[in-house]
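Hi F.,

I've been meaning to write this up properly since the lab meeting, where we talked about keeping a consistent format for the predictions we share between groups. The idea is simple: the sequence comes first, exactly as it goes in, then the structure tokens exactly as they come out, then a line or two of notes. No screenshots and no reformatting. I'm using this chain as the first example so we have something concrete to point to.
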Amino acid sequence: MRVEVTDKPLAEVDSDLLAVLLFDGDDLPEPLAGAPGSEDVKGGYKKATLVHPGSPRRALVIGLGDREEFEPERARVAGAIAARTAASVDGTSLALAGPDSSDPKALATAMAEGAILASYRFDRFKSKKGDDGDLPKHLEDLSVIADGGLAEAIEFARVGAEAENFARELQDLPSNVVTPSYLAGRAQAIAEEHSTVTCEVMGRKQIAEKGMGGLVAVSQGSAEEPQLIVLRYQAGGDGETLGLVGKGVTFDSGGISIKPSAGMQEMKMDMSGAAAVLEAVSAIAKLEVPINILAVIPSTENMPSGTAVKPGDIITQLNGKTVEVNNTDAEGRLILADALAFSVELGADRMVDLATLTGAVIVALGSTYAGLISNDDGFAAEVEGAAARTGELVWRLPLHPEYKELTKGTAADLTNASSKRKASTIYAGSFLEEFVDDKPWVHLDIAGTAWDVGREYVGKGPSGFGVRLLIDLARSLAS
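Output, unedited:
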């Protein structure tokens, strides 16, 4: 999408739709004041009114509510409402104008993010065309009416929002397209695009030789070759290395502990953590953030077959700890365990993992917050700050020594599924802590926030959750 910053007067805007954001009680700017439809304008949050000033031909006024209650999330929502309205009138260009604000950068970048995110469409496999013989038009041009000094910030917002949309497409694509090898191909393409990024991919034989028993076990029921993907972004000199780990199960049937058939088609999104990590690295490289990043993505299908791992099997993870596999549908923690241990081995100084890990987090937090579990208060606070700035919200859950009792196995060191249905999200995080070697670590359970969130700028389906959060985190750690 082409995005520009301009300070031209509203009357000179030539976009298909001009959207003006307004605080409750503020006066309409010229030329909207007194124009047909202006008498119906309300400044309440999310109230939207079409106004016809003549020049421009069509304007949409979107309420932000009380000025004292403003937060950037409201501007994201308003930008999304504007983009959806532009699409409803077959518009391909949109101009956004915000009110005076105490933080004009936060307002402008948020409304641009909302518009770009809301412009996402997944129609690659649709053959039906409209009455004019063409597929529905997409938003192509976005103008942000603001001070020219905000151009760099808005460009950063564009790159982040588009990266999130790329992650959403990876989530949306069917699992017969997005296989582990497909994700590896995307990683290699990112490395080819940026001289600061290198890529290494390990296949089934190398994974087994390395001793990654979790990834071996989960993948052995599938004909698809598992892939252990490693991306390195080197732009931070001798500074520390941030490790990013993303769960990459491209289809999760549950294995022998098979899932119910209802809704199983959505299990193509069990690679949402991998998608977020891949596209965050791509965006960080585009933005030339001065930081070192190590991204490790364990990718596989989880399928039932005569060769699949069975309940009761015992495996050995990369760090030597043994695990009773008492539920083959608790597979994510097995592959993440190997990836976290490998990240430590490769030199990560601190780590964030993202995974659609437990249904229990949806029960606890719905789709509003991702669950955050950490062994380090300072690092957890850094991630919480990035979440607050991007609107990709997290809620910290506790770790406690008593939760370790749930992870203990009977015939092995650990079990991947406790017999007690207690604190399932925290239990899974406590399991993962066994593989971080006391490095500062944050686990984000995104099972509730990766899909079907319902917010105006992502709607139903994939959200790309985590991309903008990771970009913001990398920038804050680099500053």
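Notes:
The chain has a mean pLDDT of 96.
The CA atoms of residues 45 and 65 lie 4 Å apart.

If this format works for you, I'll send the rest the same way.

G.
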